[in-house]
Amino acid sequence: MKTLTNSLLAVLFLTMTGLAAAEVSYYKPSTKTGASLCVIVKDDVLAHTSQILPLNIKGGQIAAGGAVDQTVLVLKNLKYLLGKVDSNLNQLVKLNIYVAREDLVPEVRQRLAQELEVTAQPACTYVVTKLPDPKALVAMDAVAVSGSNKKLAQAQIFNDDVSGFRAALLPAGRTAYISGQAVKADTLAESTKKTMEELFQTLKYLGGSPENIIQIKAFLTPMSEATAASQVIDGFFPYDSKHPVTLVEWYSSLPIEIEMIVALPDDSSTTRPAETVTYKTPTGMKSSPVFSRVAIANVSDRIYVSGITSKEPGDNSTRIHSVFNQLKQVVGEAHSDMEHLAKATYYVSENEISGDFGKIRQEYYNPQRPPAASKATVKSVGIPNRILVIDMIAVPAK
Predict the structure, then answer these.
(1) Which keywords does this Swiss-Prot/TrEMBL entry list (predicted)?
(2) Which end of the chain is more exposed for a tag (fewer CB within 10 A), N or C?
C-alpha cells in the first residue's frame, strides 16, 4: 500500500505556523486544481462554515463582476470568518464549491489554485446549482482546522453580526453524520418544519442535543423560495446561535431533504475504540443495504476525499464502477477501506443513473456498514460528459 509521502511538507508547514498539535496530511495536492486527492486530519478541533457568498460585507450586497472576481471575494470572506474562530485559509481541509453554471467551473478552479498555498490544498467538490442569491455565481462552505488547543466540551457556534456568516467548532471526539431526511408537505416551508422535527427525533435517539449541531445541508426546490426554508430552519435555534446552513437546489418531487453533522457526547474511555465507525438505524426507520441512517465516527480522525467522477464517459455501469474503484483506491491509500466510510453525498445530473447506481453500490458496500448518505439530482457535476460525482468522508480502519 502506498504511503502519504506527498503530505510531509504540509504537516511541517502547520507545525511551523504554531499548530504543534495539528496533524494534517494533504495527499497528492495539485497546483493545477488547487485541491488534494484527499486530506487526513487527526484529533483536531474543526471549524465548519455556512455557505459563503460573494458579498460585499460592508454593503451587504453581492459584488458585481464575473466568476473569477467573485471567487476571490468568497475566499476573502471565508478568510475573514475563519479568522474569527482561530483559523485561516492555510488550515483548510475541505471546500465544497457551488457554481451557478458548468462553463464557469474551469475559471473558478484556476483562480482557486492561484489563491491557495500549495502546502494546504483542501479536498474539493464542485456542484453546479442555483444559489440563494441569483446574482451570485459562486459560493463555498469549508472545513478547516482551528488553532484552538483547548479541549471543547461541546460545539461552539459563532454568528458574525457584520456579514451574517456562521461557523461551528466541532470538538475532537465522536461525531454523528445523519443521512438526509425528508417529510413531504404541500409547501417548502411546511416540509422544512416537519423534516426538522423528524431530525430532532433522530437527535434524541442518538442522545444528542440541538446545540451540538455543527452543520445543516438542505437540498431543496425551488431555490427561489430558499429564504422561507432558511427562516424555518433558523427558527429552531436561539436568536444569537444560528447554525451553519448550506443550500443546494435539487430536482425532486420532494420539496426538501436535510442532513446534519452533530457532535456527540464522548465516552469516558481514554483508549482508542476498537471500532472507529458504527452505524445506526433510529427507532421507526427502515435500514438499507446501501446507506445507513446514521454513521457515528468514534474517533477524531477524518479522511476528506475530493469529489470523484468517472475517468471516462461510457455507459452508466462503466461510470459507476470507475467512481467506486477510484474511491476504493483513495481510501485504501489513506489507511481506510470501504467498510469505514462515514458520510457520502452523491450528486447526479441525470436521474436515469439512479437504478444502476443503487444496484452497483451493493457490490462495494458491506450491507451492514454502508455510509450515511444523501443523493441529489442537480444541474451538473461540473465536468462535461460526466453525470455522477461522489463526495466522501471516511475514518481510519484502526
Answers:
(1) Signal
(2) N
Asked whether the beta carbons of 183 and 198 are under 8 A apart, the reply is yes
Question: Residue 102: which domain range?
Answer: 1-172
What are the beta bridge partners of residue 303?
A: 40, 394
Which residues fall within 8 angstroms of residue 262, CB to CB, at 6 or more apart?
175, 176, 178, 203, 206, 208, 212, 213, 214
Q: Per residue in 353-394, pLDDT tens?
A: 999 999 999 999 999 999 999 999 999 999 999 999 999 999
Q: For residue 128, which of 302, 305, 329, 347 has the smallest C-alpha distance?
A: 347
Number of domains present in the structure of the chain: 1
Whether residue 327 is contained in a domain is answered as: no
What band does 154 get if pLDDT is binned at 50, 70 and 90?
A: confident
pTM for the whole thing?
0.93
What's the mean per-residue pLDDT of the chain?
A: 91
Q: Residue 392: inside a domain, yes or no?
A: no
| Mean pLDDT value across residues 144-156 | 81
Give residue-wise pLDDT tens across range 283-342.
999 999 999 999 999 999 999 999 999 998 889 999 999 999 999 999 999 999 999 999
Answer yes or no: is 118 within a domain.
yes
CATH number at residue 71: 3.30.1330.40
Q: How confident is the model at residue 120 (pLDDT cuts 50, 70, 90)?
A: confident
| SS3 (DSSP) at 201 | helix
pLDDT at residue 16 is higher than 90: no
Helix (H, G, I), strand (E, B) or coil at 142: strand
Assigned C-alpha cell, 88: 485561516
In terms of C-beta density within 10 A (0-12 exposed, 13-18 middle, 19 or more buried), how is residue 1 classed? exposed
CA distance 295 to 301: 14
Domain assignment present for residue 362? The answer is no
**Does residue 18 surpass a pLDDT of 80?**
no
E strands in the chain: 23-27, 38-42, 46-49, 55-56, 61-62, 92-99, 123-128, 138-145, 156-159, 166-170, 175-181, 213-220, 245-249, 256-263, 277-280, 294-297, 302-308, 341-348, 372-377, 388-394
